[in-house]
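Q: what sequence does this backbone want?
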């Protein structure tokens, strides 16, 4: 993976233009400040694994690197301007397509080689405990024979921790830009571990909520599934990136110790990618189970409503039957209670017993009829 040495004559021919562009970019970012604080997080020059300079501007970084044969520049940028990237492109012969990708962002993870320069796009992730969400970031890395440039478009990953680690291990840093690339890859992949743990905990909680019948669980499953799609897009291409780097070990004479480190990172990212695939499968199954449980619950509710309606109908039939039975004597009694002078039964001796008998016959007949129809 070691990169061929770049011809310094080519750098000298572009030096004046690059310095002018760098000074203009620095002035545009912060006209009154001595450092390009607008996007240059930190720029350092290293020699044999030890820091020899911390320039305040891009132009000064270029000059110090030229003054240190065999040195390495490590420049960290956060959302740089177009002028700053064009300055870096002029100084380090960065390909215009890679510069365009770094400027626009929203790229998929990939590894591209443009002549003597590697261009790597990585997707970092971190788990936000308070929101129970996964936040994704994007990182672009330019790796040359004597320089490494990082372009971040988000807070993650924390490259200051990577810089401290490398500066605390001069032997590893002395291996050059490819060693720094390894450290960045390692930091990105290590950052996936808390995300995996957080997602696993979320899935456990979701399983509990599903069987508890929480109505909001469907939305949570959907949102977590979308995050896992993004997580899969970040981790799966990274497996291929590391395999491509390992395929170039022999061709580019990569240090044996660095080869071991990169293989270890490849193992970790493969494990993470498999876990993410498992999470997606688990969420799909949980969503299916939740849909089944929701359907069962709806069927149970509909059955309960049907049973309640049936019971209500039975009660209505009973009430209607007794109302009809009680209506018959009321009708007879009402007729016989009317005050007419010429009623046929008025002076009939058996009129009253006949009225009582008629009421009993009608009521009994209605009762028998309703009973046979199971209304009573």
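A:
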């Amino acid at each position: 993976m070691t990169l061929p040495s770049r011809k310094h004559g080519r750098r000298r021919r572009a030096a004046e233009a690059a310095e002018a562009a760098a000074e203009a970019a620095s002035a545009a970012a912060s006209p009154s400040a001595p450092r390009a604080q607008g996007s240059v997080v930190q720029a350092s020059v290293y020699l044999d694994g030890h820091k020899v300079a911390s320039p305040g501007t891009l132009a000064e970084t270029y000059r110090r690197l030229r003054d240190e044969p065999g040195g390495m520049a490590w420049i960290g940028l956060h959302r740089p301007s177009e002028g700053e990237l064009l300055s870096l492109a002029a100084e380090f012969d960065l390909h215009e397509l890679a510069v365009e990708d770094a400027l626009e962002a929203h790229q998929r993870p990939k590894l591209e080689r443009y002549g003597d320069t590697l261009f790597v796009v990585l997707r970092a992730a971190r788990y936000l405990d308070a929101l129970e969400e996964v936040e994704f970031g994007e990182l672009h890395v330019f790796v040359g024979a004597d320089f490494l440039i990082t372009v971040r478009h988000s807070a993650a990953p924390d490259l200051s921790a990577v810089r401290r680690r490398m500066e605390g291990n001069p032997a590893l840093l002395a291996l050059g830009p490819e060693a720094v690339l390894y450290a960045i890859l390692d930091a990105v992949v290590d950052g996936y571990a808390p995300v995996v743990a957080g997602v696993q905990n979320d899935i456990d909680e979701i399983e509990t909520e599903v069987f508890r019948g929480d109505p909001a669980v469907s939305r949570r499953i959907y949102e977590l599934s979308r995050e896992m799609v993004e997580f899969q897009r970040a981790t799966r291409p990274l497996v291929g990136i590391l395999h491509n780097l390992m395929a170039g070990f022999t061709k580019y004479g990569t240090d044996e110790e660095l080869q071991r480190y990169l293989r270890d990172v490849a193992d970790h990212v493969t494990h993470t990618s498999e876990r993410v695939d498992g999470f997606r499968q688990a969420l799909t199954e949980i969503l299916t189970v939740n849909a089944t449980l929701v359907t069962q619950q709806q069927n149970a509710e509909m059955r309960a409503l049907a049973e309640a309606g049936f019971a209500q109908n039975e009660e209505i039939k009973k009430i209607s039957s007794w109302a009809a039975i009680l209506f018959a004597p009321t009708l007879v009694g009402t007729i016989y209670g009317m005050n007419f002078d010429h009623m046929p039964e008025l002076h009939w001796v058996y009129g009253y017993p006949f009225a009582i008998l008629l009421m009993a016959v009608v009521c009994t007949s209605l009762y028998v009829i309703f009973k046979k129809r199971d209304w009573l």
